[in-house]
Design brief:
The protein is mainly alpha-helical and about 40 residues long. It contains one helix and no strands. The longest helix is centred in the middle third of the chain and has 32 residues, at about 5-39. The termini are far apart. About 0% of the residues are buried. It comes from Staphylococcus schleiferi. This is Putative staphylococcal protein.
Length: about 40
């Protein structure tokens, strides 16, 4: 957990993981909609 190696690199890594999480959330939202439609 050494964040002082390269701040820019860490920033981009965090940004990428945030984008990935957002994509996952959108996919999850679609699945949730499908499940609620089936009920």
């Amino acid at each position: 957990m050494s964040k002082d190696k390269d701040p820019k690199l860490n920033y981009h890594e965090e940004e990428n993981s945030m984008v990935t999480d957002f994509e996952d959330l959108k996919e999850l939202g679609k699945e949730m909609e499908q499940i609620s439609d089936q009920k």
